[in-house]
Design a protein that fits this description.
Alpha-Beta Plaits, globular, 8-stranded mixed β-barrel, 583 residues, TIM Barrel, 6-stranded mixed sheet, alpha/beta, 22 helices, 22 strands, single chain, PAS-like_dom_sf, Beta-Lactamase, PAS
C-alpha cells in the first residue's frame, strides 16, 4: 500500500516474509524473468540485490555491485542539479520517474527510463529503495532517425521545409518587430526535362551541386533549405532594404550562368525566384511563403531566369483577386459549390473503406476555378468559415441521398481549415449541421494539417478529445510538410496519418522518399495509427506501399475525384470487378 506521501509502506501481511508463502523458485523466476532491470538498495542506498535483466543491461553481476551505490552507473551526462531535484522529489513523494543516462561496465553510455520508489516500515522509516528501469537506446535511435527524416533533406543535407519554417519562425521571434527579413523562393527552370531526358540520378547530382554553389555565396546566418523537388528556400536576415534582397537573387541567377559538368556533358540550368518581404508582405511565415511562391510563378510566367517581388505580381493580379473575392461571396450565399469524392482503398482487404470530400467551383463568368486559387483566397478573407460549413451541409445531403440507395456505412473525410477549426464555436456549429440533417459523427473523419494541431496544442488536444468522444475519427493530413515529429503526435487522439503526395510521387525512383515513407509507416503503426497514402498513380507505387504495410491508399490509379453520382457508379463497378476476380 501507499501512504499519503506516495511511498510504499508495508504492513505485517505485506512484509517481505510474506513471500515465504510462495515457492522460492517461483519468486526467483518472476524476479529474474522480467525484461526490466531491477535494483534494490538499503536505506543508505547500498545495492543489495539486482536481477538478471540488470546484469544484462549494465554488464555488472551482483557480486560486483553489492555494497556499491547507484553512483557506480553514473554517466556524467546529468548536472548535479538534476540529481538534487531527483532525490528531493524522492524524499518528498516517495517516488521518482523519468529518463536518465547511465554507464555500462564497458564504459558505454545508454539512456534508460527509470522509476525509483522508497519502502517504509510501519514507523514510517525508509528501509529500502528499489529501482525499475528499461533500456531505451533503440527508442532513442528511432526518434533521432525520425527527427532527421522529418527535419533534414537526405539528398542535399539541407534543412527541409519543416525545419525552415521552424528556424525562420525562431528568427522572427528573436529579432523583434522592427527587423526586416526576406524569403526567396527558388525554382529551377525546366528541371523536369533534365530528369526526363537524363534520368533522376543526373538530376540529383545537379541538385546537390546547385546547393553547394548557393551555400558559397550566402552568409552563415542565412537559412538555405530544400522545399521539395527542384524548389529551394532562402531566408535572409536583417536586410536593410529591398535592394539587398534583389542582390541576393541576382547572385543566385548569376551562379547558374556557369554550366554543370557531368562527364563530357555541359548542362545549363536557370532559375526563377520569387521574393517575399517580412513584415511588409506578411508577418505570418506560411502566408509569406505563399506570397514568395506566387511571385516566383510570376517570374516564371514572364520568361524565367529572373526574379520578382510579390508586390509587383499583386499589382497585376489585384483586379482578378477583387473580382474573385466578390464572386466567392456570392457563390457561398448561393451555395454554388459542388462536392466531389475520391475513394480510399484498403490494401489488406481491397475494400473501399471511405472517400475524401473535395470542393469544386465553376463560376458562371470565368468557368472552373482551381481550389489552389479560391481556397487560399477564402482563407485570406475569412470566407473559409462559411465555405467550410457549406461543405459540411453538402456532404450531409449526399449522405442522406446515399441512405435512400441502401448505402449506410460509407465514411467521408472532410478537410478542416485551420481558421475554421480555431473558432470557439467550431464544435457547436458542426454539431448543429449534423443534427439538422440527421447525420452521425461516426460516419465522418476530420482531416487537419500538422500546422493546425501544433498551434496552442493544449487547447487543440482538448477540442480533439471532445470531437473523438462525439464519434468523429481524426486524421493528420499532408504529414511531412509541417514541423511535427511522429513521437510528438502521440499526444493527440488520432486515428489516421496521411502521408503527403510529394513523398508518394517519387517513391518508385528516389530511395530517400522510400526510406521516409517506410519509417513513417513503421512509427505510425507503433503509435496505433493507420496510414493513408494519397496521390497514388501507378501500379508500382501500389506494390511498394503494400510491401511497406501501408493500410489505405487513394489516388488517380483507382479513381479521380468524382461527383456523388459518379461515385455510385464507381462503387457498383468495383463490386462487379471484385466478383469477377479482377480487383
Amino acid at each position: 500500500m501507499q501512504d499519503e506521501s506516495g511511498s510504499l509502506k508495508l504492513n505485517k501481511e505485506q512484509q517481505p516474509e510474506s513471500f515465504s508463502s510462495y515457492p522460492k523458485n517461483l519468486v526467483e523466476k518472476v524476479f529474474n524473468s522480467t525484461t526490466e532491470g531491477i535494483m534494490i538498495t538499503d536505506e543508505k542506498m547500498r545495492i543489495t540485490l539486482v536481477n538478471a535483466a540488470f546484469e544484462k543491461v549494465t554488464g555488472y553481476v551482483l557480486n560486483e555491485v553489492r555494497g556499491e551505490t547507484p553512483r557506480i552507473l553514473k554517466s556524467g551526462r546529468q548536472e548535479k542539479t538534476f540529481y538534487a531535484t531527483m532525490w528531493n522529489e524522492l524524499k518528498l513523494k516517495g517516488t521518482w520517474q523519468g529518463e536518465i543516462w547511465n554507464k555500462r561496465k564497458n564504459g558505454e553510455l545508454y539512456p534508460e527510463y527509470l522509476t525509483i520508489n522508497s519502502i517504509q516500515n510501519e514507523q514510517g522509516e525508509t528501509t529500502n529503495y528499489f529501482g525499475v528501469f528499461s533500456d531505451i537506446s533503440i527508442k532513442k535511435v528511432v526518434e533521432k532517425e525520425m527527427e532527421t527524416l522529418t527535419f533534414s533533406d537526405r539528398l542535399t543535407s539541407l534543412p527541409n521545409r519543416s525545419s525552415f519554417n521552424e528556424l525562420f519562425s525562431q528568427i522572427i521571434t528573436e529579432s523583434g518587430s522592427q527587423a526586416k527579413h526576406a524569403i526567396l523562393f527558388i525554382d529551377l527552370d525546366r528541371f523536369k526535362q533534365v530528369n526526363a531526358s537524363l534520368g533522376n540520378e543526373v538530376g540529383d547530382i545537379i541538385l546537390v551541386e546547385f546547393a553547394k554553389r548557393i551555400k558559397q555565396i550566402i552568409n552563415k546566418d542565412d537559412i538555405f533549405a530544400r522545399y521539395g523537388g527542384d524548389e529551394f528556400l532562402l531566408a535572409i536576415q536583417d536586410i536593410k532594404n529591398q535592394k539587398e534582397a534583389a542582390q541576393y537573387a541576382s547572385e543566385i541567377i548569376k551562379s547558374l550562368s556557369k554550366p554543370f559538368y557531368l562527364d563530357d556533358m555541359e548542362i545549363y540550368i536557370t532559375s526563377s525566384i520569387g521574393i517575399g518581404l517580412y513584415p511588409q508582405d506578411s508577418e505570418d511565415v506560411d502566408k509569406l511563403l505563399h506570397k514568395a511562391d506566387k511571385a516566383m510563378y510570376f517570374a516564371k510566367q514572364n520568361g524565367r531566369n529572373q526574379y520578382a517581388f510579390y508586390f509587383e505580381e499583386l499589382k497585376r493580379d489585384s483586379k482578378r483577386q477583387l473580382f474573385l473575392e466578390a464572386e466567392l461571396r456570392k457563390g457561398i450565399q448561393a451555395k454554388d459549390f459542388n462536392i466531389y469524392y475520391q475513394p480510399k482503398i484498403s490494401l489488406d482487404t481491397n475494400e473501399i473503406v471511405g472517400v475524401e470530400a473535395l470542393v469544386r467551383w465553376q463560376n458562371d463568368q470565368i468557368g472552373v476555378v482551381s481550389p489552389g486559387e479560391f481556397i487560399p483566397l477564402a482563407e485570406d478573407t475569412g470566407l473559409i468559415i462559411p465555405l467550410s460549413e457549406l461543405i459540411f451541409e453538402k456532404v450531409c445531403l449526399d449522405i442522406l441521398e446515399w441512405r435512400t440507395l441502401g448505402l449506410n456505412n460509407l465514411n467521408v473525410s472532410i478537410n478542416i481549415a485551420s481558421l475554421h477549426f480555431q473558432q470557439d464555436n467550431f464544435i457547436e456549429r458542426i454539431n448543429e449541421i449534423l443534427m439538422q440533417y440527421n447525420c452521425s459523427p461516426q460516419q465522418l473523419e476530420l482531416e487537419l494539417t500538422e500546422r493546425t494541431i501544433m498551434k496552442d496544442s493544449e487547447s487543440i488536444i482538448t477540442k480533439l478529445i471532445k470531437l473523438k468522444n462525439m464519434g468523429f475519427k481524426i486524421s493528420i493530413d499532408d504529414f511531412g510538410t509541417g514541423y511535427s515529429s511522429l513521437s510528438y503526435l502521440n499526444r493527440f487522439p488520432l486515428n489516421y496519418l496521411k502521408i503527403d503526395r510529394s513523398f508518394i510521387q517519387h517513391i518508385t525512383s528516389l530511395k530517400d522518399k522510400q526510406a521516409i515513407v517506410e519509417s513513417i509507416i513503421l512509427m505510425s503503426h507503433r503509435l496505433q495509427l493507420k496510414v493513408i497514402a494519397e496521390g497514388v498513380e501507378s501500379k508500382e507505387q501500389v506494390k511498394i506501399l503494400k510491401e511497406m504495410n501501408c493500410d489505405i491508399i487513394q489516388g488517380y490509379y483507382y479513381s479521380k475525384p468524382v461527383p456523388s453520382k459518379g461515385l455510385m457508379d464507381f462503387l457498383e463497378l468495383w463490386e462487379i470487378l471484385k466478383q469477377e476476380g479482377k480487383q
